[in-house]
Please model this.
Amino acid sequence: MSGTDGISEICADFLVEAREIVEQLGEQMVVLERAPEDRDALNTVFRGFHTIKGGAGFLDVPPMVTLCHAVEDRLDVARNGALPLDGFAFDGAQQAIDLLADMLECVAAGQPLPTVPQGLIDSMHVDGRGPAPAAAAAVSANDLPDNLDELDFDSLLDAFHGKGALPGAAPVSEAPPPAAIAPAPSPAPIARPEPAAGGRRSPAANDAGETTVRVDVRRLDAMVNLVGELVLARNRLKTIRPRLRDEDLDRAVTALDAATSRLQSAVMMARMQPVGRVFSRFPKLARDVARQVRKSVELDVVGAETELDRNLVEALSDPLVHLVRNSIDHGIESPEARRLAGKNEQGNVRLSAQQEGDHVMIEVRDDGAGIDPDKIRDSAIRKGLIDAESAARLSADECLQLIFLPGFSTKQEVSDLSGRGVGMDVVQSKIRELSGTVQIQSEVGRGTRMAIKVPLTLAILPTLLVEIDGDVYALPLVRVVEVLSHTGGNAMWIDGQSVLDLREQPTPVLDLRHWLGLDPRQDGPSTGVVLQAGEQRFVLIVDHVRGREEVVIKALPRTLRGLSGYAGASLIGDGRMALILDVDALHESGVRTRRAVVNG
Model:
């Protein structure tokens, strides 16, 4: 192993660990701010900054060392009981966390690091007369052994945690000169240490860390793709089996089916991560936003251990940030308004997650002012998003759905934070890309609930297969409410829209043949599939229902990319391609009443 490769490997390990620490520090600082006398919380925060400082010192990143050292000094004064942490110290520490996150991204990209503001350094100094003490010692690449294989990387990681001196390093200087850091390969995010390299074991290697291994996510993605191909082959064999009527083949396919299902589940579990990876940043976010808008807000986080496919965990970050910001900025009232309304001056936002079958439900709930449907209706009319006549026919729940229209907002002034409704169409679009749904419920004076429902994984999708003229289409099973027989005589016409009376509930009807531009079916009854699109239900009329099948989602053929109504494609058990239909897009483009509401 060359010296450069060794440094890059160490830098990659440092980035993985430091990013995780920075994510946790925001939450830990909020906990400490609520209970400044909590010694354990104070020591945890101190160790976080100390760990990053040690790694940054070894990799010769002076600005990061200087920043961590300044915060560490202020925390140490509090640990010694000389001066408790105050509001200025907490604000400065949170600013330092944000700056550390930016610095780590610069290190990863091989870019120059931002300078540490002198005001931030001064805010950490107890007497305020000057900068914090000089940065901690750092080790440059020139101090490494000639043969990096001799360096005990596990002891090095222990040193990052303050557990010992840096192995194999020469004595260090107090103020190292700046040195260029080579960009490190983007490491796979993980939450556990890897086993000792090359058979060497550190003193801490006898714990549970021995049972884990760090795996590049690209290898996991490759395994998922291979399992997907195996599922397709399994489905094909299950389709062929009835034609051959061979008992030995039946037993073999049954065994293969069971083994494939277990393998699929095991590979999916390897890609699962707790949503806490996303949730951990929200206590700090809530604290910063609340201070910016001068409100008192407590964030409760529930179900952070709930697991999702890692791709979904990362993709949910931005929509959830938007919803939490909105709840605080435009949902929670000011302390004065809450007091006048007989509420506690401190508002509450609850971020929760729980698994429901093969899906996960994530909620952002606040006890704020709620959303007035009439104000939503009036705002949409003023902005020309809907005409007055169509708006007058909307129920209270339907009015709430207007906040998902592009350009909708009830904010009266422009601020750095999004008001409820600003960009909510983007939130909805992002959730739909994840084959999920977002629903809104609100009660004036009591608060608002935003509920996001997403599948556990996007790699393999349970579907209901339907047929039109021999062509097969797949509907996400989570959107299917029920299947029923249908004859044309069952339908009524209301405002130019075909409607079925479904248990005294008028439900719009969309004929898939008509949507595809095909002639009406002439022979025999059709089948209706009741589908859920957001808060609305509609009946999709098809020729036949083939049954349930798990499919592997593939990209659409080039000729269909960009067309509304299609979410992907897959090969099914008989070897044919099936197009996966986008239920929300079908509803928006095919149900006339919905189109009238949106377009006015």
